[in-house]
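Question:
Write out your own:
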Amino acid sequence: MRFDAVVLAGGRSSRFGGVDKAQLILDGVAMLDRVLAATAGAEQTVVVGPERATARPVTWATEDPPLGGPVAGIAAAVPLGTAPIVVIVSCDLPWLEAENVEQLVTGLAEYDGFGLRDSSGRAQRLAAAYRRTALERALAELGETRDQSVRRLFAGLALGWSGPIRAGDDVDTWADLDDHSNPGPG
């Protein structure tokens, strides 16, 4: 199935003391490049955030206003693609692989969106595939996107979820990276 990818990489990384999470190296590869490898099957890949060197070509976008949050980033990126499915992922999913992205796309069967649960079972709305029409409708209904809640954006959509899986684990703190040595489920 045809899909576009939106990779959110514009946050402040405040829990990392301002260190750019997207550029953190894990097993010799930057976290952003790990996510870009997992989404390599996309027709169009849009990375939202400041331009950086990447392992493959991408289109860059900036949320309006800059640092306006992930919903503003999604709103800036979605119009830059045309595929019927949009895979939205954050750059801090270092264990995401192409097979997980395929699972997201194929999991859409009867849903507006299908996402991963992290290894603790928490739903990850920023590790999910969405039908473009449903996503565009949700953005239009929301209106103002600056500093809006991701949960609120997707509240009206029919969402399905995977079982708990390591690929859904994001890295929000240094401790999350330390957990890399303990692979956990998935």
User: Anything to note?
Assistant: Residues 3-179 form a domain with the Spore Coat Polysaccharide Biosynthesis Protein SpsA; Chain A fold (CATH 3.90.550.10). Helices lie at 31-38, 70-77, 98-106, 132-142, 150-153, 174-178. The longest helix spans residues 132-142.
